[in-house]
Amino acid sequence: MFTEERMGPVQWMDLGIYLQSFMLRATEEGLATCAQGFWRRYDAVVKQHVEVPDGYLVTYGIALGYEDKTAPINRMRASRADFAEWGQLRGF
Fold it and tell me: Transmembrane ranges (predicted)?
Protein backbone atom coordinates (compact mmCIF):
# COMPACT_ATOMS: atom_id res chain seq x y z
CA MET A 1 0.00 0.00 0.00
CA PHE A 2 1.27 3.46 -0.86
CA THR A 3 0.28 6.94 0.24
CA GLU A 4 1.20 10.43 -0.84
CA GLU A 5 4.19 11.93 0.96
CA ARG A 6 2.14 15.02 1.87
CA MET A 7 -0.31 13.01 3.98
CA GLY A 8 -0.16 13.57 7.74
CA PRO A 9 -1.05 11.58 10.89
CA VAL A 10 -4.81 11.87 10.37
CA GLN A 11 -4.57 10.32 6.92
CA TRP A 12 -2.33 7.56 8.27
CA MET A 13 -5.10 6.77 10.77
CA ASP A 14 -7.55 6.63 7.86
CA LEU A 15 -5.25 4.12 6.17
CA GLY A 16 -5.43 1.96 9.29
CA ILE A 17 -9.22 2.06 9.15
CA TYR A 18 -9.10 1.08 5.47
CA LEU A 19 -6.63 -1.72 6.23
CA GLN A 20 -8.93 -3.17 8.87
CA SER A 21 -11.92 -3.04 6.51
CA PHE A 22 -9.90 -4.70 3.73
CA MET A 23 -8.80 -7.48 6.08
CA LEU A 24 -12.33 -8.07 7.38
CA ARG A 25 -13.67 -8.29 3.82
CA ALA A 26 -10.90 -10.71 2.83
CA THR A 27 -11.86 -12.90 5.80
CA GLU A 28 -15.49 -12.88 4.62
CA GLU A 29 -14.21 -14.19 1.27
CA GLY A 30 -12.28 -17.03 2.96
CA LEU A 31 -8.85 -15.44 2.76
CA ALA A 32 -6.37 -15.04 5.59
CA THR A 33 -4.42 -11.80 6.02
CA CYS A 34 -1.47 -10.44 7.93
CA ALA A 35 -0.83 -6.69 8.14
CA GLN A 36 2.86 -5.83 7.87
CA GLY A 37 3.93 -2.38 9.00
CA PHE A 38 7.64 -3.15 8.74
CA TRP A 39 7.57 -2.48 4.98
CA ARG A 40 7.60 1.25 5.76
CA ARG A 41 11.27 0.87 6.74
CA TYR A 42 12.12 -0.54 3.31
CA ASP A 43 10.62 2.18 1.13
CA ALA A 44 13.75 2.53 -1.02
CA VAL A 45 14.14 -1.23 -1.49
CA VAL A 46 10.49 -1.72 -2.47
CA LYS A 47 10.75 1.14 -4.96
CA GLN A 48 13.63 -0.70 -6.68
CA HIS A 49 11.27 -3.60 -7.48
CA VAL A 50 7.80 -2.04 -7.80
CA GLU A 51 6.68 0.96 -9.82
CA VAL A 52 5.75 3.63 -7.30
CA PRO A 53 4.69 7.06 -8.58
CA ASP A 54 6.84 10.03 -7.55
CA GLY A 55 5.65 11.63 -4.33
CA TYR A 56 4.39 8.37 -2.80
CA LEU A 57 5.69 6.34 0.16
CA VAL A 58 5.40 2.68 1.04
CA THR A 59 2.91 2.60 3.90
CA TYR A 60 2.42 -1.08 4.72
CA GLY A 61 2.08 -4.51 3.18
CA ILE A 62 -0.56 -7.18 3.51
CA ALA A 63 0.03 -10.91 3.20
CA LEU A 64 -3.07 -12.42 1.59
CA GLY A 65 -3.82 -16.06 0.92
CA TYR A 66 -5.39 -19.27 2.13
CA GLU A 67 -4.61 -20.39 5.68
CA ASP A 68 -2.99 -23.81 6.09
CA LYS A 69 -4.90 -25.00 9.14
CA THR A 70 -2.55 -27.99 9.50
CA ALA A 71 0.58 -25.83 9.93
CA PRO A 72 1.69 -25.77 13.59
CA ILE A 73 2.18 -21.98 13.56
CA ASN A 74 -1.50 -21.51 12.72
CA ARG A 75 -2.54 -23.40 15.86
CA MET A 76 -0.53 -21.18 18.19
CA ARG A 77 -2.61 -19.03 20.54
CA ALA A 78 -1.11 -16.25 22.65
CA SER A 79 -2.47 -15.25 26.02
CA ARG A 80 -3.99 -11.78 26.28
CA ALA A 81 -4.31 -9.34 29.14
CA ASP A 82 -7.84 -8.48 30.25
CA PHE A 83 -9.08 -5.16 28.88
CA ALA A 84 -9.25 -3.71 32.42
CA GLU A 85 -5.47 -4.15 32.72
CA TRP A 86 -4.67 -1.86 29.81
CA GLY A 87 -7.73 0.21 28.87
CA GLN A 88 -10.67 2.25 30.10
CA LEU A 89 -13.94 3.36 28.56
CA ARG A 90 -15.09 6.71 29.89
CA GLY A 91 -18.47 8.30 29.41
CA PHE A 92 -20.27 5.12 28.38
Answer: none
3-state secondary structure at position 85: helix
Q: Report the DSSP beta bridge partners of residue 28.
A: none
Nearest to 35 by CA among 13, 57, 63: 63
Average pLDDT over residues 7-24: 91
Structural domain harbouring 24: 2-67
Strands 56-58 and 32-36: unpaired
Q: How far apart are CA 8 and CA 1, in angstroms?
A: 16
* β 61-65/2-4 pair status: unpaired
Contact (CB, 8 A) for 5 and 58: no
pTM equals 0.73
